[in-house]
């Protein structure tokens, strides 16, 4: 097995494709043999708590979501870098410690800046 | 709190051209009310709300009343001297007159600041058919908003300067005003085991009497469960 | 207590094996079942109602979902907010004429197999407010109702009894054959026309293919 370390992935892929196909296949067989499909215009209408839906369902995307995602990404990557730092903390030299401190301080300054600018408040 | 007569006197003193009358309630509840005229109602309402002695800042209820046209029979007794020389006869003559009907909006006011009340005020429309407008008191008390919409929906009183006057209980395409005395429900007869009132009338009309069966007045016989169509 | 719903047939797949014999086999560790029975068993023990309460009966429905009466033991504690995920609509409360099109639209949006319980006098026939100007005289004017639960309001135990009756009805449903269940047959409609708001009443005031008023008895 150590010749093909990725063979397990191929098996995983196979199961991932076969499983939903089997489910859909069973549903298709069910419709064919037992329960005739009854589609309809009223049945497929948009749900709006029983009312007839009016107007377009496309709304303007709130740009604040994007901002939050960017901030999260930055600090998530920072955490990623902090992890090996934390693991090797006790065996590091002072220079390395100082470098990491500068790294953290730079990102903390970024946090303070975005906080002051009000980007962390949800409007 | 001062009596209604005192309130009425103060209102008339403050607004000399306004017509404020006391309407007594002859029943046991004795909820007498003040009838305001439509043109000055807004100013009178503002006075009632802001006057330091009254401070009626809470309108707890707005309701409508439909007074239909009423035929009143007046019986007058006149003494007519007997031409034959006997004692004078008392002759009764009846005259009927039509008292025109009107729609009425009744407001119940309380004071949250001074903890007194209620003071009941009324406004009457000119008639029931075309002159059905009354000033809205929503600018004075916000609580009147939905309640005046309900009175519009059920009685047909149009409140002028209401911020959003549309039907609230019935749908917008509905045409009638259900709480009026002359509202006729759509004829939707359904057999009932204990029919009474006008349901009994309709039951009699729909009863399976011989003439009705011949005439075919009954609902057509349709299968109760949806069967498979051949 | 007599059963209003027909009991399911004795086990058909194995010929004429009776329930007693089946129980005997089960006690000895042999379980026999049929596909239909398994399918219906899965469905009846996981009925998901639609979150649909209109008036006072809705309070009793909520009470049935609380710990004291516990509709969760029947698998029905998940009240779905969306009709697409529900298979039972418990119409609990007065259906006003203004609300009736919404009820029918929600019924249409539920996928098959779906069932309707009319809970309370108002949903069955208009109830104590039958003469009201805005009251629909029973939701069965527009959608097919499977179980009627009388009461004003019916106690939560009565709602649970109605649910049990619905479970019995579902257990007796067949997938194939001449008396197959409503949801399997393409000729039985799953969506119903939605009444429109007319000038004086709903148009149409009732759906004649779903319900007609009972004929009064002929008087001599």
Describe this protein with a few key phrases.
A: 123 residues; 3 helices; B: 230 residues; alpha/beta; 5-stranded mixed β-sheet; two-stranded antiparallel sheet; 21% helix
Summarize the structure in words.
The complex is a heterotrimer of chains A (123), B (230) and C (220). In chain A, 61% of the residues lie in helices and 0% in strands. The N and C termini of chain A lie far apart (55 Å). Chain A is an all-alpha fold. With 230 residues, chain B is of the alpha/beta class. Chain B has a domain at 4-67 and 102-160: NADH:ubiquinone oxidoreductase Nqo5 subunit (Beta Polymerase, domain 2, 2-Layer Sandwich), CATH 3.30.460.80. Chain B is 21% helix and 28% strand. Chain B contains five helices and nine strands, in the order H-E-E-H-E-E-E-E-E-E-H-E-H-H. In chain B, strand 8, helix 3 and strand 9 (158-160) form a beta-alpha-beta unit. Mean pLDDT of chain B is 85; it is low at 215-230. With 220 residues, chain C is α/β, with parallel strands linked by helices. Chain C has helices at 19-27, 35-44, 56-64, 100-109, 121-125, 156-171; strands spanning 88-92, 115-119, 147-149, 196-197, 202-203. In chain C, a hairpin with a 4-residue loop joins strand 4 and strand 5 (202-203). Chain C is globular and about 65 Å long. Chains in contact: A-C, B-C. The interface between A and C is medium-sized, with 15 and 23 residues.
Multimerization status: heterotrimer
Element-level helix/strand string of chain B: HEEHEEEEEEHEHH
Enumerate the spans of chain B where pLDDT stays under 50 for 5 or more consecutive residues.
Answer: 215-230
Mean pLDDT of chain B: 85
**Largest beta sheet: strand ordering of chain B:** 1-2-7-6-3
Determine the strand fraction of chain A and express it as a percent band: under 5%
Percent strand of chain B equals 25-35%
The biggest sheet of chain B amounts to: 5 strands, mixed
Tell me the helix content of chain B.
10-25%
Radius of gyration of chain B over alpha carbons? 26 Å
Provide the structure class of chain B.
Answer: alpha/beta
The number of helical segments of chain B is 5
User: Given this structure, which CATH class of one domain in chain B is correct?
Assistant: Alpha Beta
CATH topology of one domain in chain B: Beta Polymerase, domain 2
**Name of the CATH architecture of one domain in chain B:** 2-Layer Sandwich
Low-confidence stretches of chain A: none
Helical proportion of chain A?
55-70%
Rg on CA atoms of chain A, Å: 27 Å
Decide which structural class fits the backbone of chain A. Answer: mainly alpha
Shape of chain B: flat
Q: First CA to last CA of chain B: what distance?
A: 79 Å
């Amino acid at each position: 097995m150590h010749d093909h370390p990725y063979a397990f992935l191929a098996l995983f892929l196979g199961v991932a494709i076969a499983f939903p196909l089997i489910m859909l296949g069973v549903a298709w067989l069910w419709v064919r043999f037992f329960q005739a499909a009854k589609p309809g215009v009223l049945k497929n209408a948009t749900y709006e708590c029983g009312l007839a839906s009016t107007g377009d369902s496309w709304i303007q995307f709130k740009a604040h979501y994007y901002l939050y995602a960017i901030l999260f990404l930055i600090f998530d990557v920072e955490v990623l870098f902090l992890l090996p730092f934390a693991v090797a903390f006790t065996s590091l030299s002072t220079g390395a410690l100082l470098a990491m401190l500068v790294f953290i301080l730079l990102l903390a300054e970024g946090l303070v800046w975005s906080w002051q600018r009000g980007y962390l408040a949800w409007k | 709190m001062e009596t209604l007569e005192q309130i009425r006197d103060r209102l008339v003193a403050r607004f000399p051209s306004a017509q404020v009358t006391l309407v007594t309630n002859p029943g046991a509840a004795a909820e007498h009310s003040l009838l305001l005229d439509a043109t000055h109602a807004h100013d009178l309402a503002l006075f009632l709300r802001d006057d330091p002695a009254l401070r009626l800042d809470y309108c707890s209820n707005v309701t409508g009343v439909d007074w239909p046209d009423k035929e009143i029979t007046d019986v007058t007794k006149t003494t007519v001297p007997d031409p034959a020389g006997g004692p004078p006869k008392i002759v009764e003559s009846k005259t009927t007159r039509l008292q025109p009907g009107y729609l009425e909006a009744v407001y119940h006011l309380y004071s949250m600041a001074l903890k007194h009340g209620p003071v009941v005020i009324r406004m009457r429309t000119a008639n029931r058919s075309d002159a059905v407008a009354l000033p809205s008191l929503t600018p004075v008390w916000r609580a009147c908003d939905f309640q005046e919409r309900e009175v519009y929906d059920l009685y047909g009183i149009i409140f002028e300067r209401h911020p959003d006057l549309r039907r609230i209980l019935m749908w917008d395409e509905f045409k009638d005003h259900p709480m009026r005395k002359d509202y006729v429900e759509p004829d939707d007869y359904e057999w009932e085991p204990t029919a009474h009132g006008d349901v009994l009338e309709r039951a009699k009309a729909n009863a399976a009497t011989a003439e009705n069966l011949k005439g075919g007045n009954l609902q057509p016989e349709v299968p109760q469960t949806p069967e498979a169509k051949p | 207590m007599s059963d209003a719903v027909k009991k399911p047939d004795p086990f058909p797949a194995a010929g004429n094996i009776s329930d007693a014999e089946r129980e005997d086999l089960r006690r000895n560790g042999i379980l026999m079942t049929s596909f239909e029975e398994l399918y219906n068993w899965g469905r009846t023990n996981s009925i998901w109602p639609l979150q649909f309460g209109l008036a006072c009966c809705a309070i009793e429905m909520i009470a049935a979902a609380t710990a004291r009466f516990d509709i969760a033991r029947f698998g029905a504690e998940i009240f779905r907010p969306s009709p697409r995920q529900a298979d039972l609509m418990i119409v609990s409360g007065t259906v006003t004429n203004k609300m009736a099109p919404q009820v029918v639209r929600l019924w249409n949006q539920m996928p098959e197999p779906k069932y309707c319980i009319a809970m309370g006098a108002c949903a069955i026939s208009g109830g104590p407010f039958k003469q009201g100007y805005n009251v629909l005289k029973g939701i069965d004017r527009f959608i097919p109702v499977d179980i009627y639960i009388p009461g004003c309001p019916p106690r939560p135990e009565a709602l649970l009894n109605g649910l049990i009756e619905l479970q019995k009805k579902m257990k007796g449903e067949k997938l194939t054959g001449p008396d197959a269940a409503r949801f399997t047959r393409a000729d039985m409609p799953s969506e119903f026309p939605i009444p429109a708001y007319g000038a004086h009443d709903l148009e149409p005031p009732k759906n004649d293919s779903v319900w007609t008023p009972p004929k009064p008895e002929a008087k001599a």
